[in-house]
Design brief:
- It contains two helices and 13 strands, in the order αββββββββββββαβ.
- The chain is mainly beta and 224 residues long.
- Strands 1, 2, 3, 4, 5, 6, 7, 8, 9, 10, 11, 12 and 13 form a 13-stranded antiparallel β-sheet that branches.
């Protein structure tokens, strides 16, 4: 977590050190998350459905003194949810326990996306752009959540790293609409089976899966 935080601070410092002729706009950004949680193994055991979440926070946009290039950075509160359904009944595991039903997994984090963007004008009132860049996430919610009647535990990582790829439109130089895909790099959390459940599931050849939360995002920002 310390390494990720240091990288985020260094990147932000470099941006604030841009030449004086760079244009800077401050604003606020919010939007919708549509997350899909994927599992590293035993995918036939768990079924994750897309769920909506949201993000909101301050943002800043730098127009660099190079035609078409810019950088934006934000500090956002980001919440993501997914309903995870187990497809195994206790009878299938020959054990006196129930591992069948729905549970909601929730991620609450502060994220720092830093994007390089390239834009082109569509007239005096609008411009379009593409963007990509790293995102640093820091967990601010519950680190451990018991699910399936305490048979399993969802463990959140303290920090994570992901990449953004997206497109956007800027209207009248103030209102911005974006759509992007947030790709998790490495696991964001882990499902661990507990106590008797762990021994039974291991005997059945079922391993604790790592979890990745990849997300489509629709954002709206207003720059002052």
């Amino acid at each position: 977590m310390k390494k990720l935080f240091t990288l985020a601070v260094v990147a932000a410092t470099m941006m604030f050190a841009q030449p004086a002729d760079a244009q800077i706009q401050f604003g606020v950004k919010g939007g919708v998350n549509l997350s899909s949680f994927s599992f590293s193994n035993d995918a036939d055991m768990l079924d994750s459905k897309n769920r909506t979440g949201f993000f909101i926070g301050p943002t800043v946009n730098f127009t660099l003194p190079v035609v078409g290039l810019g950088v934006d950075a934000s500090v956002l509160y980001d919440q993501r949810e997914a309903k995870v359904k187990s497809t195994y009944k206790y009878s299938e595991l020959n054990a006196d326990m129930e591992l069948y039903g729905d549970n909601t997994l929730k991620m609450q984090q502060v994220v720092i996306p830093i994007n390089l963007r390239y834009g082109f004008g569509l007239g005096n009132m609008a411009s379009a752009f593409v963007f990509a860049g790293p995102q640093f996430g820091f967990n601010v919610g519950d680190k451990e959540t018991k699910i399936w009647k305490n048979i399993a535990e969802w463990d959140m990582k303290s920090s994570n790293f992901s990449l953004n790829f997206g497109v956007g439109v800027m209207l009248i130089n103030h209102l911005q609409v974006t759509a992007n895909y947030n790709l998790a790099c490495g696991k964001t959390s882990e499902l661990n089976f507990l106590n008797a459940g762990k021994s039974v599931l291991e005997a059945a050849g079922i391993k604790s899966p790592n979890v990745k939360a990849n997300t489509w995002q629709i954002g709206l920002a207003y720059y002052f």
